[in-house]
């Protein structure tokens, strides 16, 4: 009927270090969880020029043509609607 054997001191120390590392990672992600405002500006004249000439408008195409991040292009499209 044996139960689990006791861990050696070295194994206990390694397990404790892993737990400490996981706790540090968890705390770090919680502090960075808040969303930041998109600060990259998009050239509106260039974006509007693309929007008028395109048959289908996607955030990816707009981002590629205006050389900004996709999230910036997406927020611009949402604001312009």
TrEMBL record:
Biased composition (Basic and acidic residues): 10-36
Region annotation (Disordered) ranges: 1-37
The species this protein was found in: marine metagenome
Identification of the protein by name: Uncharacterized protein
